[in-house]
Amino acid sequence: MISYFLVLLTVLITYLADKDASLKSKLIFHPYRVRKHKEYYRFFTSGLIHADLLHLGFNLFVFVQFGPTLERYFEALLGGYFGLAFVLLYFGGMAAADMSTYLSYCDQPGYRSLGASGSVSAVLMSFIMIDPWSVLQPLIFPIEIYSLYIAIAYLLYSYFAGRYLMDNINHDAHLFGAIFGILFTFALEPRLITRLLNSFAT
Description:
single chain, 10 helices, 2 strands
């Protein structure tokens, strides 16, 4: 499955970058260098490295909960094109997350960002848009919740945390990655919008 390949690739690149500071510097998202030196590749490499084992482990743990199932959903919708769609979703979410960072910090030479949170957010939201009434049990709650409610809470939290919390977490990247996942999925299968709206009326 593509999901497991992406997991292995991310683990490998994170490990290599952790051992080689120059490699990490080349891959990390550095908005100032992107603007000044047109290093656009960083939009797609920053999600392959992580700050530490906890950062890596949390992102990949969430990803493997939804990635393989989402691949099967895509295969049912698209047939042989599902792999291309999944890769576009994953790296598109990464780029969308970094775009929000670029717009905010392209004039700040000292700012850098890394991690696959944007991609993971995109995958999570895509899964939820396809199956909004599935029941999930978040790690921080001992109760089961409809996935659509988790999506709404996640979007609201990311929005307000990005504006009011100073916790060194790039919440706007999570938000933009999530929004990309929603829009990409609806563009892929517009009938999901009608199905979602109709579900509120029944």
